[in-house]
Design brief:
The chain is mainly alpha-helical. The chain has helices spanning about 5-20, 30-40, 45-55, 65-100, 105-135, 140-155, 160-180.
């Protein structure tokens, strides 16, 4: 396993598949740590670039995993990394859903749902902080991210593309203003 990049991809992404409470954004910090700091598959800058591509492209946000797999081992790596992230949790999710439906309305069921919600939110926030930290965007990036979060809390049905365009416009204006000064 030491030298086989496909086995390393499996070893990295299967555990993330099993702990991704809250979806793909909840594991971004861990993926960044493994891809950049532990496995040294890429630099922090490359990770941020892949993250940006995965968010701008249509499809699942977890496309980041596919891009990392492709970077490590080409098309085979992309397929292996994607399957390693999606298949284990999908099988478990199917099994849990079958049992979950049978116990809906019970007190422990409701308590478990309420307890997992803040864990998912915390993991998503950890991913956002990780991206903002390694992206070196500075105070403006933090302000735009905070503003986007506040807008989504206020208007949850706001289309993400609108936020993407608004954030881009803010950074373009900031660059223009700094160039003029």
């Amino acid at each position: 396993m030491k030298d086989d990049p496909l086995l390393k991809l499996i070893a990295v992404f299967v555990p993330f598949s099993l702990i991704s409470i809250g979806g793909g954004p909840s594991i971004i910090a861990g993926i960044q740590h493994q891809a950049v700091d532990v496995q040294h598959w890429m630099t922090s800058r490359e990770f941020v670039n892949f993250f940006a591509i995965s968010r701008a492209a249509p499809g699942p946000g977890s496309m980041l995993t596919t891009l990392i797999g492709w970077h490590v081992a080409g098309w085979t790596g992309a397929l292996v990394a994607t399957l390693a992230l999606f298949v284990p949790s999908s099988i478990i999710c199917y099994g849990v859903a079958m049992v979950w439906r049978q116990h809906r309305g019970k007190r422990w069921h409701t308590a478990l749902e309420q307890g997992l919600a803040p864990i998912g939110v915390g993991l998503i926030l950890a991913g956002a902080v990780s991206i903002l930290t390694i992206g070196h965007g500075g105070p403006l990036a933090w302000a735009v991210a905070g503003g986007a979060g506040a807008l989504l809390l206020w208007q949850p049905r706001l289309h993400p593309l609108l936020l993407f365009l608004l954030g881009g416009a803010i950074f373009v204006l900031a660059r223009l203003l700094s160039a003029m000064l």
